[in-house]
Design goal:
Elements (H helix, E strand, L loop, with lengths): L20 H12 L10 H12 L1 H16 L8 H5 L6 H8 L2
Helix pairs in contact: 1-5, 2-3
Length: 100
């Protein structure tokens, strides 16, 4: 991108396909042969847990990020194909490369 004039002055969102935490757990188990279990929790319970580990301020910040993810605030179209000239690798293909 640095070498191509067509990208000058442009801002790209390079995010790939979003997946749920459950799906991420499934992929990790497939790739690494683990038996992780995803357990959903409320934002408030997550805040309390993080605050106990990291202090109230960080607990609040991290819970806010967690809440935003759950609410889909980071769901937007990707410009990856326009920027890179190809699609993102799929999550399945990515985790298959990591498979042990």
């Amino acid at each position: 991108m640095i070498l191509e004039e067509k990208h000058n002055g442009k801002t790209y969102n390079l995010a790939g396909e979003s997946i749920t935490q459950q799906k991420l757990t499934d992929y990790m188990n497939m790739a690494f042969g683990t038996q992780l279990v995803y357990e959903s929790m409320s934002v408030e319970d997550y805040r309390k847990e993080r605050a106990a580990e990291l202090g109230e301020f960080m607990g609040m910040i991290i819970a806010g990020i967690y809440s935003g993810i759950r609410e889909g605030v980071m769901q937007f179209d990707s410009d990856y194909h326009s920027a890179a000239g190809r699609d993102h690798i799929s999550w399945e293909a990515y985790f298959n490369q990591l498979k042990r």
